[in-house]
Amino acid sequence: MFARTALRVVARPVTINRTVRLGYATAATSDPSQFSASAVEAMNPRGVEISKAQRIAEDGFISAIGNTPLLRLKKLSEETGCTILGKAEFQNPGGSVKDRAAYYVVKDAEERGLLKPGGTVVEGTAGNTGIGLAHVCRSKGYKLVIFMPNTQSQGKIDLLRLLGAEVYPVPAVAYENPENYNHQATRYAEARDNCVWTNQFDNTANRQAHIETTGPEIWAQTNGKIDAFTCASGTAGTIAGVTRYLKTVSEGRVQCYVADPPGSVIFGYVSSHGKELGERKGSSITEGIGQGRITANLQPDVELLDGALKIEDAKSIEMVYRCLDEEGLYLGASSCLNVAAARDLSVKLGPGKTVVTILCDGAYRYADRLFSKKWLHEKGLWEAVPERLRSYAVLD
């Protein structure tokens, strides 16, 4: 799989020789005896090269996870004078960066003998980790049980059930409350044989997924020519794992910044060098990121971070529309928070730098809000949408 990543460098358009193109057109549309496979391959040399390296995903879904492209964000790169690259995690087979963590926490349970054939996986989640686990569990023959706050949309519940999960929506209460969905998931798993709670926030197999896959992929794709990395923290597996790898392989040269939405304590904690954790106040429209505590995934690597970037919801919404219009990328709010952070970091570091971030997932699961005029007005975010781009808000 790693060979695939080494080849997935940002590509430039290939100019096909006119004679080859005409020869291909003639061979493809007339006498089959004149058909030339080499002429066809010449039309897409890079695609053929990558396909040969990829070979066949012998283990099906799980072996298709990772090795996602690194995309140059053209407009923002031109504006800042930097090269801003986004790791296209929406191209994972389950649609998000969480496919990586989902696979690794299940694999870890198997390797430690906690999960045997026919077993049950339990997690407390309302988002992409649950979707990733649903795919992984179906591909491996495990049952999946999900506990989630009952404030989540019916669409999320329906999707998880469609993917084969058993879903229990429970009252939304604070983590300190024993009836919090995570604690209920824990008790469910502890009461059953061959049943494991994967504990995505504090299970460091999550972090290990990004040390072993995401970090090395980014380093190989940039040929080591990366100056900075930034992304948000939810469970913190991605920011911690990628930071640990890049700091190690570059001998500390690559700068790493955590991006944080409103209502989270991570910005204050990192900015104060671990002296002030603070209390979680307020909230954000972004999902799955921001925290009220330091998770076990983040704790080992928090001192490696060079700083933190506070990204307001208005910036994230603006970037949702800009990425769609300027880059043709249909991204969720957390992805666009990361892009906004990469832009701010590029300005901070100055021209000529290469900055990488994570495009967590697409906007498909959030379209009923992100492109709804009513919802944007209710959240006080309508003015954040650039006037020239408001035509994209097609939902009432």
UniProtKB/TrEMBL annotation:
Family, as annotated: Belongs to the cysteine synthase/cystathionine beta-synthase family.
Purpose: Catalyzes the conversion of O-succinyl-L-serine into cysteine, the last step in the cysteine biosynthesis pathway. Can also use O-acetyl-L-serine.
Record-linked InterPro entries: Cys_Synth/Cystath_Beta-Synth, P-phosphate_BS, TrpB-like_PALP, TrpB-like_PALP_sf
An example Gene Ontology biological process: cysteine biosynthetic process from serine
Every Tryptophan synthase beta chain-like PALP domain range: 64-361
The keyword Mitochondrion appears for this protein: yes
Name of protein: Cysteine synthase 1
Matching Pfam families: PALP (PF00291)
Keywords carried by this UniProt record: Amino-acid biosynthesis, Cysteine biosynthesis, Mitochondrion, Pyridoxal phosphate, Transferase, Transit peptide
GO cellular component: mitochondrion
Catalytic activity: O-acetyl-L-serine + hydrogen sulfide = L-cysteine + acetate; O-succinyl-L-serine + hydrogen sulfide = L-cysteine + succinate
GO molecular function: cysteine synthase activity
Subcellular location: Mitochondrion
Annotated EC: 2.5.1.47
Cofactor(s) this protein cannot do without: pyridoxal 5'-phosphate
Pathway info: Amino-acid biosynthesis; L-cysteine biosynthesis; L-cysteine from L-serine: step 2/2
UniProt superkingdom: Eukaryota
Record has Nucleotide-binding as a keyword: no
The species this protein was found in: Friedmanniomyces endolithicus
